[in-house]
Amino acid sequence: MRHIEIAVVGLGGVGGYFGFKLAHAFGRGGEAKVTFAARRATYETVKERGLVLLSPEHEIQVARPDLLLSSVEALTIVDLVLICVKEYDLEQVCQQLKEKVTERAVILPLMNGVDIYDRIRKVITKGIVLPACVYVASHIKEKGIVEHKGKPGLIVFGKDPAFPQFYPEKVMELFQTAGIRYDYREDPFPDIWAKFVFIASFGLVTARYNLPMGKVNEEEELKEQAWSIMSEVVTVAGSKGVVLPDDIIDRTFRKASSFPYHTPTSLQLDIHSGRPGNELELFAGAILGYGEEVKVPTPETRRIYEEIKKLELRAK
Description:
Elements: E1 4-9, H1 13-26, E2 32-37, H2 40-49, E3 51-54, E4 62-63, E5 67-69, E6 80-83, H3 90-97, E7 106-109, H4 116-123, E8 128-129, E9 132-135, E10 138-142, E11 145-148, E12 154-158, H5 169-178, E13 181-185, H6 189-209, H7 213-218, H8 220-239, H9 248-257, H10 266-273, H11 280-294, H12 299-315
Parallel strand pairs: 1-2, 1-6, 2-5, 3-11, 6-7, 7-8, 12-13
Antiparallel strand pairs: 3-4, 9-12, 10-11
Helix pairs in contact: 1-5, 3-4, 6-8, 6-9, 6-10, 6-11, 6-12, 8-11, 11-12
């Protein structure tokens, strides 16, 4: 009986954390074979010394996969693929994956965003795609080294709308063996959108003004802008049939207040450092696109999107 082929694409904060757990549990033996796909310096570092995870959850800090690849195109058979890349790399990864995916393969995207499932399905029509969101306080300390603090990571995932009869029992078993926390939902989209209310609103406002989350949460004008974006997201979600809690906006501001005052967002850092890739389209682009689709006005998101685009041009 052949091994279950698991591929982890991307070894950033998320992929490094969950990939480490899978390689630690199954790498070099066991019922599953774990492959990492990483690029350039990360590939070279992991090839030389393994993947390092600095976490209170593991005394052993180094794990090696069964196979390390420098590109997704080099993958062969895949049974389970964890996509852990930035939004701007998603389409390219899907194009590289689509010929590798069989009818029985499972794709689990561990990414932010409410349109990830739709974007994958535009490219990959075969296999099972499990909509998901992820919670983990981990980041790249340096290439090939991921640092994790706080609570154990959590994956929330659920049924593929295209294949509602599919139940991912084997995925759950693998996660249990690897010590990966998960919550399975019949409908995971309320969880995905609830997280998006937070990351989109605070990401856009902090990026627009280059101010920390604490400032947005306390200064009335900035808070009002975040509130308007949250309201637009909630209305769009409702028009798409996703029901969020009545107090989701209050919950979101309370969640933001639990972060250290000077916490920046990743979009803010990317915009103001002039990095070539960022997640502006993941946040504002999704709100605007879905808003047009369901005929919901999104003027606050449109305004802040256009202002951030101007900032991008100045940073280049």
